[in-house]
Amino acid sequence: xxxxxxxxxxxxxxxxxxxxxxxxxxxxxxxxxxxxxxxxxxxxxxxxxxxxxxxxxxxxxxxxxxxxxxxxxxxxxxxxxxxxxxxxxxxxxxxxxxxxxxxxxxxxxxxxxxxxxxxxxxxxxxxxxxxxxxxxxxxxxxxxxxxxxxxxxxxxxxxxxxxxxxxxxxxxxxxxxxxxxxxxxxxxxxxxxxxxxxxxxxxxxxxxxxxxxxxxxxxxxxxxxxxxxxxxxxxxxxxxxxxxxxxxxxxxxxxxxxxxxxxxxxxxxxxxxxxxxxxxxxxxxxxxxxxxxxxxxxxxxxxxxxxxxxxxxxxxxxxxxxxxxxxxxxxxxxxxxxxxxxxxxxxxxxxxxxxxxxxxxxxxxxxxxxxxxxxxxxxxxxxxxxxxxxxxxxxxxxxxxxxxxxxxxxxxxxxxxxxxxxxxxxxxxxxxxxxxxxxxxxxxxxxxxxxxxxxxxxxxxxxxxxxxxxxxxxxxxxxxxxxxxxxxxxxxxxxxxxxxxxxxxxxxxxxxxxxxxxxxxxxxxxxxxxxxxxxxxxxxxxxxxxxxxxxxxxxxxxxxxxxxxxxxxxxxxxxxxxxxxxxxxxxxxxxxxxxxxxxxxxxxxxxxxxxxxxxxxxxxxxxxxxxxxxxx
Length: 632
What we know:
Helix 7 packs across helix 17, helix 13 (415-425) crosses helix 15 and helix 15 (445-458) packs antiparallel against helix 16 (463-478). The chain contains 22 helices and 21 strands. The protein is of the alpha+beta class.
């Protein structure tokens, strides 16, 4: 499938050339650091699953070794070339990283008997290949511990590729920050379908890799597409200063909740003078609000924690490494890196608030915001993954919400209805497209995307509008320094030309669903209730699990599904009571078992009308993993 229709327009090519002249491409320290400590890479370039499907291709980004073409921003090309380097690297003796085997890095720390694995990538297949590469160079050491730095899937999903549940049950510890499991599960399940669909745009999973397609995401190449797993933590890190020793490896932790993830931590290794900053300090401006969707992160706290990092560990750190990108060596360089990263988030926070209090709105602030020259000169502050533009809007959203205070925007028409009126006011679709083509010729691709959007939301089948919008989005992608922006623009163009690509990869895996607590499972059902169709329903189902926890009651009334533990006024009187064990209950609620079958097998007993359960579940809807984005 060809995502591209042509080359970069002259205005985009010139803007990209201007970036070459403006930026410090003669600074090659990152190139030297990225290759430092290289020990070797895999002999086979493709990593496959059990069915032979390729889940990762180490050579897919080989084209980045060439010169940057006009269809890519030279700064993003540079970043993507650095991030695609793959292999085993020594950080310091005893600490190694496998980079380029997934979106994230896997770190391996050698202990007295085996190794501690930190952040085992997204997929079991890539994690297993990464561990095999380490062992080929360093020996067959067993995994004696696993550590998740935070609650995003690219830092835990491959865990069963490096260790099994049997080994954990036998005593191999799995460490994680407090709150890890709750956030890992809730973020990937509650809004998981929508996040996965938008992540298709964000990471460009359906785009062909190449100079006119996907060249990386800024944080790493892209996401692997193998099996996502999860093993629950057995050791919880709850406070800053907490020290744990695993297989002779001493670690001192700093809690950093609410920074890049709701549950996250930094790790200092005193015997190595090494600091792992997880995803709190990497070689990019990170997201305050990720484009796939999430809760807005707090840049004020983020900056505060990085100041604390310097205070706690700065005097005893000779190398900083993270869960993405390459390390920074040297105490002076490490302190400068951490301080500049701190200043980056503090500046965005403080200056956005300053302009909020001058009456500016999010889009206005985003256009005015400019980083100080000293920060702009540092490559690691560039917006390859997050951006100054959408991060400023995120700060506005965090403090002020969606409403900009202008009453004209308080009750605006939704997109399709507004589009019909806009196109009518502008003289009809033909006139809009005529003038949009003039704007395209003038290089005003942002405006083309804005006005042609209205034509598409009035008539999504308008072939001329689809083609022009795709061309405009493509040019915006070609000029983007930000990897996720490029992927969004180019995926939008791809879908306008060829139809929906769906959701090629998802983090809503069997392990995550199995890890849901019963309360979370009930909550996930409540999210699926078709409220308007359930207004008149009144159904109460009581569950008895026979495990000493007491009954649980589900009641659907007023379009709301509530659950109550125990008995009492909130629980009400049941229409049906069902006695079964928890695995049977999970199978029933997830649609993997039928109540009649469970009763026939002797796994469930029913008192009351069993049809009432079917009535309740009949009000649940299925999420749509293929919902439209660039059309209504």
